[in-house]
Structures are given as structure tokens and as C-alpha cells.
Task: inverse folding
């Protein structure tokens, strides 16, 4: 729909961060990439679609923040004194940040689609999408939801061995 396209209309590049397994540092890479782009003067957002292990709010020390609604959807949480990084994560929607999310595929897929279409990102140079480990339904849902937009590419995080 038109409203869906409007929320990502101001995003110039979308970058997925993926891996075949857990514990290799996807969230760390996503966070460091966002901070590096920010220090290079870019406007950056992070979409944390790791629904079972949303660690980016804690990494950026905003885990106690709340998400608010506006006319065009959810307003992301802005990080830092300069509010330079916009962040959306399921971590902000849980009662306690350490709560586990035990959902079947359709509910996860619906939330991912909602994250892609219903977050009011505004003007961003880069949207970094931190994905869960593996090659699951969440990845397919994320890529399909982002397909209409100009996807810049992906960073594949592997283990050193």
C-alpha cells in the first residue's frame, strides 16, 4: 500500500546482516556498523528482527525505552544524546527485556512484516537489518517484505575457522 511504501521511502540503502549459525557476532557487527556509519555523518537505523534474542537494545543501552505510536505507525527509539541512530526491536515490546519469545512462524512473520511496513523511519542513509541465526522463516519473511525496496545488499558473518 501507499502508507507502507511511505515509511521506507526516506531510506536510501538497506543492508541485511546474516549468518548460518548463532553466536558469530551479527548483532555486534550490526551495532558497530551503525556506529561507524553514524560517525561518518550518515543517518542510520537498525531493525532488529532477531525475535528470540533481541540484543541490540541492550548493546546500545536503551533496553528500558518504550516505542510510541504516531500517525504513520511506530516511532523508533532514538539512541544517544544526538538521537543519531533510530532503532526498532521486539525488545521494546516485551514486558521484561529478558522475556523469551515463543511464537510459531505465522506470528513471527506477521511481526516482521509489521516492522518493515509500520515503523516511521524518516530520512535514513542506511537501515541495517539484524537477523536471527540460521536460514529460517524469519529470513524469508524479511527479504520478501523488503523486496519492493532498493536492497543494498547483505553482510554475511562467518566464524574465523
Result:
Amino acid at each position: 500500500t501507499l502508507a507502507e511504501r511511505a515509511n521506507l521511502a526516506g531510506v536510501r540503502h538497506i543492508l541485511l546482516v546474516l549468518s548460518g549459525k548463532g553466536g558469530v557476532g551479527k548483532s555486534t557487527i550490526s551495532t558497530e556498523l551503525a556506529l561507524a556509519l553514524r560517525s561518518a555523518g550518515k543517518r542510520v537505523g537498525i531493525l532488529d528482527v532477531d525475535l528470540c534474542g533481541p540484543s541490540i537494545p541492550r548493546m546500545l543501552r536503551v533496553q528500558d525505552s518504550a516505542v510510541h505510536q504516531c500517525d504513520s505507525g511506530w516511532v523508533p527509539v532514538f539512541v544517544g544524546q544526538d538521537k543519531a541512530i533510530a532503532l526498532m526491536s521486539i525488545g521494546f515490546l516485551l514486558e521484561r527485556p529478558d522475556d523469551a519469545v515463543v511464537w510459531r512462524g505465522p506470528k513471527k512473520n506477521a511481526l516482521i512484516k509489521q516492522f518493515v511496513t509500520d515503523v516511521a523511519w524518516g530520512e535514513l542513509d542506511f537501515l541495517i537489518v539484524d537477523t536471527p541465526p540460521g536460514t529460517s522463516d524469519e529470513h524469508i519473511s524479511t527479504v520478501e517484505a523488503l523486496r519492493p525496496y532498493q536492497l543494498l545488499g547483505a553482510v554475511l558473518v562467518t566464524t574465523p575457522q
